[in-house]
């Protein structure tokens, strides 16, 4: 009798807590990208035509979501004499290669790949989370070009694929 009551309490507990239920039945607790990513020390430098400095974009990417923690540096430098520009289309990998970004001149887009066994068996265990933000950076004119800076931003995670 006592056993049956305990069993009933256990089942009620599981019914009220779907996450622990999933964990019990599938041995799987999905990773969830929900807390916005932090973009810190964002610096955009656009050289003047005559300058011999390279244009660049640099920032830190921080993900604090449980079991998805990443803290990495992202940099894109336009080689001197290159005909490409900072905002020319294309993705650049961050130091942690699971993270990549693209800058179109106004919007910073980020993608972040991760593995989660809850998604399925390899190779179906990977997902990509996406985010975007317009930095609204503070601009400063220097001798060699123009700097745009933003100390900290919170980038919402807009989609998953
Ligand atoms: C870059 O330009 C500055 C002056 O604008 C000059 O002093 C410096 O030597 C140059 N550097 C190179 C590597 O050309
Ligand atoms: C990220 O890493 C940098 C340097 O490695 C460190 O200074 C900073 O505190 C870290 N931030 C977080 C949120 O872990
Ligand atoms: C870049 O261009 C300058 C002048 O046009 C030239 O002196 C220099 O060697 C070039 N550098 C490279 C890496 O091509
Ligand atoms: C951009 O930043 C300035 C000051 O840093 C602030 O006053 C303004 O409201 C910001 N605009 C947006 C759209 O976030």
TrEMBL record:
Keyword annotations from UniProtKB, A to Z: Signal
Signal peptide: 1-15
Protein name in the entry: AA1-like domain-containing protein
């Amino acid at each position: 009798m006592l056993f049956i009551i305990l069993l009933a309490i256990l089942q009620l507990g599981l019914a009220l807590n779907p996450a622990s239920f999933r964990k019990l039945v599938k041995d799987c607790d999905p990773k969830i990208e929900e807390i916005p990513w932090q973009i810190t020390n964002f610096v955009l430098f656009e050289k003047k035509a005559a300058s011999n400095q390279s244009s660049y974009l640099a920032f830190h990417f921080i993900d604090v979501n449980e079991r998805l923690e990443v803290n990495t540096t992202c940099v894109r430098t336009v080689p001197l004499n290159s005909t490409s520009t900072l905002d020319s289309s294309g993705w650049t990998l961050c130091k942690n290669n699971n993270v990549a970004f693209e800058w179109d001149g106004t919007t910073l887009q980020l993608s972040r790949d991760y593995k989660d066994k809850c998604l399925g068996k390899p190779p179906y265990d990977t997902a990509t989370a996406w985010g975007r933000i317009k930095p609204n950076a503070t601009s400063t004119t220097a001798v060699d070009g123009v700097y745009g800076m933003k100390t900290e931003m919170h980038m919402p995670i807009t989609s998953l694929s």
